């Protein structure tokens, strides 16, 4: 059950609301922020110790969203890169994105049952913004966030249900990752924005969060092992985090400690629980608190830019408060060395 009745709720076309640094405070206290972080936390908990290959319930909308992403993948094949002088930012991406933008309403109409069709004008904005910028031909965490907001909204209207939480990550989001990686490689897309010491890779962030949650409690992959070639080759399809490392190794050359220093540092953290909680905090500080990212976020009726109520937001996804560590995990952490190493020397 969603938090709104999709047949009577007043949907609106989302618009930008964060226009200056002064708007960042209201954003971090808004309903949209609370709902979005509630969604991130809920799915983070759902996939704990659940690999990509774990069995999970899949509703009809999970299947139709996968079909939607398959169609977009096919459109890449039908829109090959063009010959051009510049090495990066192939202009064919703009053609692909134009086709997506023009066809997005129809794609969602095919993916959603009739009772959810009224929400399409609001949902479609998040879909078309989830793959990159057609002018700059770049992709970054803001585009990733747009697609995640689409999934969040699908939960809020009830199109995705409680039982779809694992599939939303291990099926839909995993398929989305494969799609955007194909876009990044095919059209040689630029990373959006600038990248400081805290960036994990040039394009994504959330798969590292949810991927580290998948690895909590699995018992055979220690954090330091993701630097090893054998580990990556064996587990990249099974665990999202390891798949991220495989993609980095595929597109970057040189020493891992140099081109992905923060991930190299993370490999020295003793447990996946500590890594997961640390990445959630980092995401809040290094993505959700950055104006260059949030200025592009769109706000509608499902994710509104208005002050959150003092009580917990009415969200159908059961979750702890944002960034709270469940008591059992907190107890486990208390027994560990609280000092995080700053580097780990690969074998």
Automatic annotation (TrEMBL):
GO cellular component: cytoplasm; nucleus; protein phosphatase type 2A complex
Family per similarity comment: Belongs to the PTPA-type PPIase family.
Lineage: Eukaryota, Metazoa, Ecdysozoa, Arthropoda, Hexapoda
Membrane-spanning residues: none
Alphabetically ordered keywords of this record: Cytoplasm, Isomerase, Rotamase
Cellular compartments annotated: Cytoplasm
Reactions listed under catalytic activity: [protein]-peptidylproline (omega=180) = [protein]-peptidylproline (omega=0)
GO BP term (any one): mitotic spindle organization
Pfam families: PTPA (PF03095)
Name this polypeptide is given: Serine/threonine-protein phosphatase 2A activator
Highest rank taxon of the organism: Eukaryota
GO molecular function per UniProt: peptidyl-prolyl cis-trans isomerase activity; protein tyrosine phosphatase activator activity
Main location: cytoplasm
Function summary: PPIases accelerate the folding of proteins. It catalyzes the cis-trans isomerization of proline imidic peptide bonds in oligopeptides.
EC number from the UniProt entry: 5.2.1.8
Location of the region described as Disordered in the Swiss-Prot/TrEMBL record: 325-347
């Amino acid at each position: 059950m969603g938090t709104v009745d999709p047949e009577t709720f007043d949907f609106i076309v989302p618009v930008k609301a964060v226009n200056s640094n002064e708007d960042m405070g209201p954003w971090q206290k808004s309903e949209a922020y609370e709902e979005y972080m509630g969604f991130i936390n809920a799915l983070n908990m759902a996939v704990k110790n659940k690999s990509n290959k774990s069995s999970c319930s899949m509703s009809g909308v999970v299947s139709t969203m996968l079909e939607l992403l398959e169609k977009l993948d096919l459109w890449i094949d039908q829109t090959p890169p063009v010959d051009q002088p510049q090495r990066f930012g192939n202009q064919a991406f703009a053609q692909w994105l134009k086709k997506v933008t023009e066809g997005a309403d129809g794609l969602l109409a095919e993916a959603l049952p009739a009772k959810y069709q009224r929400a399409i004008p609001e949902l479609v904005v998040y879909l078309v913004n989830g793959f990159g910028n057609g002018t700059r031909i770049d992709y970054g965490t803001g585009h990733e966030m747009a697609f995640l907001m689409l999934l969040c909204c699908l939960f809020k209207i009830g199109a995705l249900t409680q039982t779809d939480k694992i599939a939303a990550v291990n099926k839909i989001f995993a398929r989305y990752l494969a799609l955007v990686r194909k876009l990044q490689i095919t059209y040689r897309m630029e990373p959006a924005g600038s990248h400081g010491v805290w960036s994990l890779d040039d394009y994504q962030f959330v798969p590292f969060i949810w991927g580290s949650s998948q690895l909590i409690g699995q018992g055979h992959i220690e954090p330091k092992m993701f630097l090893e070639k054998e580990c990556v080759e064996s587990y990249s399809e099974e665990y999202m985090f390891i798949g991220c490392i495989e993609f980095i190794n595929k597109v970057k050359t040189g020493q891992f400690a140099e081109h992905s220093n923060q991930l190299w540092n993370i490999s020295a953290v003793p447990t996946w629980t500590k890594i997961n909680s640390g990445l959630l905090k980092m995401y809040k500080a290094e993505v959700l608190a950055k104006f260059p990212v949030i200025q592009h976020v769109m706000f509608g009726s499902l994710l509104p830019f208005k002050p959150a109520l003092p009580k917990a937001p009415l969200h159908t996804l059961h979750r702890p408060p944002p960034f709270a560590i469940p008591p059992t995990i907190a107890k486990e952490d208390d027994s560990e060395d609280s000092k995080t190493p700053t580097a780990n020397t690969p074998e």
